[in-house]
Amino acid sequence: MKVILREDIDNLGKSGELVTVKDGFGRNFLLPRKKAVLASEQNMRQLEHEKSVQTARNAKLKGAADEQAKKLGNVKVTIKRKVGEQDKLFGSVTVLDIAEALASQGQQVDRRQLHLAEPIKSLGSYDVELRLHREVTAKIKVDVVAE
Prior knowledge:
It holds the Pfam family Ribosomal_L9_C. Belongs to the bacterial ribosomal protein bL9 family. By secondary structure, this protein is α+β, with helices and mostly antiparallel strands. The protein is built from three helices and nine strands; from the N terminus they run E-E-H-E-H-E-E-H-E-E-E-E. Strand 8 and strand 9 (137-146) form a beta hairpin.
């Protein structure tokens, strides 16, 4: 039985792929749960249309992410924190703190787009990666200074 997958399925394929499965698996699992549709001519045309719409949407989102990356390319954020001995911070600087600092400068960024391997726990200057799109990243400079 040939089916078109509507979502990613482990060990079978990705969404939108045409795959051949055993009749029982398709009839008893994939089709009733709406994880796949039969590979008819009409469904193939529908799939191609959905792919073209998705491609256009991704191109538009990538263009918007490129523009935002250019704006954020030279942004510098300064965060003031209380420090103890050996320039260790009381607490830490997290992506939420960085997102709030960016918002105070007028740059609206979702905190889930900021990528910080671990929270910042000492004074200094850090480069923080901002993932705006699957293919577009920007780096912003974060300075942590003593209060």
